[in-house]
Design brief:
mainly alpha, 74 residues
């Protein structure tokens, strides 16, 4: 599964421009908060049914790629 660059949207008209899942008003930060609290991806998706699994996985893949862009293999 490749990343979906369209999974995140930013618009000054939606929550003041904070990153949200495209087509929703659910902030990407909410997914991060769930995972930090120990909640599962399934719990997040159940609580925010407007976000698709594909969108959530794409956002996590984008975060991983951003963190590893300058990583050097061990």
């Amino acid at each position: 599964m490749g990343t979906n660059p369209d999974a995140i949207a930013r618009s000054p008209d939606v929550l003041g421009g904070i990153p949200v899942f495209t087509g929703t008003r659910v902030p990407v930060r909410t997914l991060i908060d769930y995972l930090e609290a120990g909640d599962s991806l399934n719990e997040f998706l159940a609580d925010f049914p407007t976000v698709t699994r594909e969108q959530a996985v794409a956002v996590l893949e984008q975060a991983r790629e951003a963190l590893l862009v300058d990583a050097h293999p061990a």
